[in-house]
Amino acid sequence: MRDLLVIGGGPAGLATAICAARAGLSVTVVERQRGDIDKACGEGLMPAGLRALERLGALEGLDRRRCAPFRGILYTQAGGPEARARFTRGDGLGVRRVALSEALLARAGTLPSIEIVRGAASGLEVLADHVRARVSEREVTASLLVGADGLQSQVRKLAGLEGRPHPRLRRHGLRRHFACAPWSEFVEVHWAAGVECYVTPVGERVVNVAFLWDAPLGHLSHDFASARAAQHPQHLSHDFESVKVSFNELIARFPSVQEHLQSAEVTSESRGAGPLLRPALARAKGRVALVGDAAGYVDAITGQGLSLAFMSAERLAEQLAPLSRPFDARVLSDALGRYHRSLRRAWLRYALPAQALLGIARRPRLRSAMLGLVARAPSLFSRLVEDFAG
Ligand SMILES: Cc1cc2nc3c(=O)[nH]c(=O)nc-3n(C[C@H](O)[C@H](O)[C@H](O)COP(=O)(O)OP(=O)(O)OC[C@H]3O[C@@H](n4cnc5c(N)ncnc54)[C@H](O)[C@@H]3O)c2cc1C
Fold this sequence. Notes:
By secondary structure, this protein is of the alpha+beta class. The protein has eleven helices and 19 strands. The protein has helices spanning 11-22, 47-55, 97-109, 154-158, 224-231, 240-251, 255-261, 305-320, 329-361, 364-375, 378-389, and strands at 2-7, 27-31, 44-45, 67-70, 72-77, 83-86, 92-95, 114-118, 121-126, 131-135, 138-147, 170-179, 186-192, 195-203, 206-215, 265-266, 271-273, 284-285, 288-290. The model is unreliable at 218-245 (pLDDT under 50). Flavin-adenine dinucleotide is lined by residues 7-13, 30-33, 37, 39-45, 49, 120-121, 148-150, 154, 173, 175, 210, 212, 273, 292-294, 300, 303-307, 309.
């Protein structure tokens, strides 16, 4: 029997495996994507996430051709002021998700107690003294089930930890890459009515262009977002055509970004995700712990998902490290209680500013006033952004 069975080999799952293996635990990670592990993401790793990646020992394995540093964040809107927040405690890093996955997989490969199994996990069961799952023909048993299976986490549902989604507000995201030399050293956030556009440098000649919007967005939605999200929650690229139309409609709302991309080749298929708001009632219950997006997610507006994924992995391993194996139910429950509480505090520091920023994004007048205000106080703005993202 393994110590941990981790469902999901995204950043949270692989980081959990690395941290747990370093603490002497045996881990099986199950990942359903068979090739490159990719996902809809703005791909901006904030300074805190970058430091975590270094602690994980995965930074040196990153293919630097598929990364580009960024110095801060620039917020702007057509005809309005620009507000720049420059990081002072180190850069962030734009990084292609496939490159990030490769670096984490390579690091995991150096730890013999990690096993990675490709295939969808099914038949998840939580029993009194162990957990189990099936992957293809194989059964895996472990002392603890870790849900690192993203926004639509099956593990969160299984454990009865699914919070209630907002009845009306359904934000979605979509991204695509362009072969184009980055024109800014900042992650640019462009605001328009009901939608934001994020431009992140992710290589010497590659930019990631991502959108976040409330569905339905006027004429734009023609319900592709919710219909497709229900069918293919993480991979809207299954229907490239409808995504392509929508991407073009979205980009048309940002003429200043469109201008830069006019003759640039599209280098990736579009990927989307949503709805983004995914509350979790708790981060652990019985023999189940949740990490990353599965542990609760508000929105990508603050670009902190990856940093939070790494943080949850580190905190979970910290609590599990001192326990003797196989985990006794009572001792495990205390350790997971501590994990839940420590993550909850950190999560609120992300969730409250994210909610506030969402409120501002949705109100054009307030947004203009806020931009004007912070544009006049760049050092205060930099400190604010760095305090919660850096
Ligand atoms: C449009 C958009 C832009 C974003 N921009 C940023 C940004 O700029 N910076 C940032 O830090 N964050 C950003 N985020 C958030 C970030 O992408 C997530 O927070 C991050 O991916 C969370 O990692 P994770 O490992 O928890 O989940 P995921 O990356 O979703 O990984 C979950 C994994 O689980 C696997 N899986 C699911 N179910 C099963 C199963 N049954 N069996 C086996 N495997 C399974 C999936 O294949 C997947 O690989 C953005 C998100 C969106 C949608």
